[in-house]
Amino acid sequence: MLSPPATQDPRLLRRLLRAKDRIDAAPYEAWPVTRLAKVSGVSPAHFARSFKQAFGAPPHRYLLTRRVERATALLRETELSVTEIALEAGWTSLGTFGRTFRDVVGESPGEFRARERAALHTSVGTPPCFLTAARRPDLKIAVLEKRRRAGAGKSAANQQEVLP
Questions:
Q1: Is the pLDDT of residue 2 over 50?
Q2: SS3 assignment, position 158
Q3: What gap in Å lies between CA 109 and CA 126, rounded to an integer?
Q4: In sequence order, what are the residues at sequence separation of 6 or more whose Cβ sits closer than 8 angstroms to the Cβ of residue 138?
Q5: What is the pLDDT of residues 53-110, one digit of tens each?
Q6: pLDDT over 70 at 163, yes or no
Q7: CA distance linking residue 63 with residue 13, whole number of Å
Q8: CB atoms within 10 A of CB 10
Q9: What's the CA gap between 73 and 29, in Å, rounded?
Q10: In this predicted model, what pLDDT tens digit does every residue of 103-136 receive, in sequence order?
Q11: Kindly report the CA angle at 96 between 90 and 100, in degrees rounded to 5?
């Protein structure tokens, strides 16, 4: 049986928060682990391990969450094109943006925008903090893991034998 994680040093947590705050302030920037580790003043391996322990997600997954949140807000609130939104949210590749967005949200950016605009009238009177929490992307598992699971379900369905 695994023992519960050790309590982290408060000084380390403050340094990890410094890196997390940098991501929150500029999620559109490139944030490799080495850069975040420098902000925190620890080694990259120690940073990645400590960040996941402190915040429940690896640094890259946390960054993806922030970028998807930004993209969904821009899709909902602006008339910018999907390409402009992808670039403003921090992606350098439109294909990667579309694939990641679909994996996390469950629909393409265009479908998301159309659905949100149609549902705009139904959320009148709901406090914005509740809407934000409900719309937060769920990245409890890695995007690639979601894709692998979806692929396993499709291949199992294709392998079922049809009886005459």
A1: no
A2: helix
A3: 24
A4: 104
A5: 999 999 999 999 999 999 999 999 999 999 999 999 999 999 999 999 999 899 999 9
A6: no
A7: 18
A8: 8
A9: 18
A10: 989 999 999 999 988 877 665 667 767 766 766 7
A11: 90
- For residue 9, the model assigns a pLDDT of 86
**Domain covering 60-146, topology:** Arc Repressor Mutant, subunit A (1.10.10)
Q: Does residue 88 contact residue 74 with C-beta atoms inside 8 Å?
A: yes
Q: In Å, how far are 67, 90, 92 from 86, measured between CA atoms?
A: 9, 6, 7
Domain extents for the chain?
10-56, 60-146
Residue 156 corresponds to which tokens in the numbers above?
């199992």
Residue 86: count other Cβ atoms within 10 Å of its Cβ.
24
Query: 102, 139 in Cβ contact below 8 A?
Result: no
Q: Comparing C-alpha atoms, which of 48, 45, 43 is closest to residue 60? A: 48
pTM exceeds 0.90 for this model: no
Distances (CA, A) of 11 to 35, 52, 57: 19, 16, 20
Instruction: Specify whether the CB–CB gap between 66 and 23 falls below 8 A.
Output: yes
